[in-house]
Design goal:
CATH architecture of the largest domain: 3-Layer(aba) Sandwich
Largest sheet: 5 strands, parallel
Keywords: Cytoplasm, DNA-binding, Phosphoprotein, Transcription, Transcription regulation, Two-component regulatory system
CATH class of the largest domain: Alpha Beta
Protein name: DNA-binding response regulator
GO biological process, one term: regulation of DNA-templated transcription
Oligomer: single chain
Strand content: 15-25%
Distance between the termini: 50 Å
Helix content: 25-40%
Number of strands: 12
Structural class: alpha/beta
Number of domains: 2
GO molecular function: phosphorelay response regulator activity; transcription cis-regulatory region binding
Shape: globular
CATH topology of the largest domain: Rossmann fold
Subcellular location: Cytoplasm
CATH superfamily of the largest domain: Response regulator
Length: 231
C-alpha cells in the first residue's frame, strides 16, 4: 500500500480527498502543525506528497525546496491560483505534477497513478539498471549520473526523460512521444511543463559537463548525442 502525505490546510477538502484516496486503498497522513512539515515528512516517510501552495506559516514552494534537499519522493502541487508562473515555479523546484483547484477527482487519481507508475515501476522493466553514455554511468535505481567531473542526482522526471533520450541516442524524440511516455495522457500536461523539465535536466547534466549533449531540435523534439571516442 502506498502512503500519501497530504499537506492541505482546508480541513473540509483534506477530509474529502483522504476519504476518496482511502477508497482507492491508499494510506493517507496529514499535517497538524504546518510549521512541522519536514518533521512529519521524516517521520511518515511517504511514497508521494500532495501539497497546497497557499499554507499557514510557509507556502508549499518552501516545503518543496526543503523536501527536495533531502529526498526525490514524487510531489504533486495543488493550487487555487491560476498564474502560469506557479506551474513553472513548481516544476523548477522539482515537482512531478501540478493540479489546479477546483479539480475533478478522477483527474487527481489519474495523475497519482501515473506518477506512482513511472516513479516506482519503470526501473523494474529495465533490463539493466546501469547504462553508459558518453563515458558517464547512469544508475536508474539510484537516479544518479556519474562522470569524471563528479556525480549528480536527478529527480524522477529528469531521469525518466534522460532514459528515453539515451535509449534513442542520436535520434530525435518528439515532444509528443516524451509527454505520452512520461505522463500517460498528454491532455493533462501543459507544453511548458515538458520544456521546464528538459531545461532542468540539461542544467543538472551541465554540472558534470554533459549539458550540451541534450539538444533541442526546434519544431521536432530533443536528442541525446552520443559522441564518438576520439572525435
Amino acid at each position: 500500500m502506498f502512503k500519501i502525505m497530504l499537506v492541505e490546510d482546508d480541513r473540509t477538502l483534506y477530509t474529502e480527498i483522504k476519504e476518496r484516496l482511502t477508497q482507492w486503498s491508499y494510506e493517507v497522513c496529514g499535517i497538524a502543525d504546518f510549521s512541522m512539515v519536514m518533521e512529519e515528512f521524516t517521520k511518515e516517510k511517504p511514497d508521494l506528497v500532495i501539497i497546497d501552495i497557499q499554507l499557514p506559516k510557509f507556502d508549499g514552494f518552501h516545503w518543496c525546496r526543503m523536501i527536495r534537499s533531502h529526498s526525490n519522493v514524487p510531489i504533486i502541487f495543488l493550487s487555487s491560483r491560476d498564474h502560469p508562473t506557479d506551474m513553472v515555479m513548481s516544476m523548477q523546484l522539482g515537482a512531478d505534477d501540478f493540479i489546479q483547484k477546483p479539480f475533478h477527482f478522477d483527474v487527481l487519481i489519474a495523475k497519482i497513478q501515473a506518477v506512482l507508475r513511472r516513479v516506482y515501476n519503470y526501473s523494474l522493466d529495465t533490463q539493466t539498471n546501469i547504462q553508459t553514455w558518453n563515458g558517464a554511468t547512469i544508475d536508474y535505481m539510484r537516479n544518479t549520473v556519474a562522470h569524471d567531473h563528479g556525480e549528480i542526482e536527478l529527480t524522477k522526471n529528469e531521469m525518466f526523460i534522460l532514459k528515453i533520450l539515451v535509449e534513442n541516442k542520436n535520434k530525435i524524440v518528439s515532444r509528443e512521444e516524451i509527454m505520452k511516455s512520461l505522463w500517460d495522457d498528454e491532455r493533462f500536461v501543459s507544453d511548458n511543463t515538458l520544456t521546464v523539465n528538459v531545461n532542468r535536466l540539461r542544467k543538472s547534466l551541465g554540472e558534470i559537463g554533459l549539458g550540451k549533449l541534450i539538444e533541442t531540435k526546434v519544431g521536432q523534439g530533443y536528442m541525446a548525442k552520443e559522441e564518438v571516442s576520439g572525435t
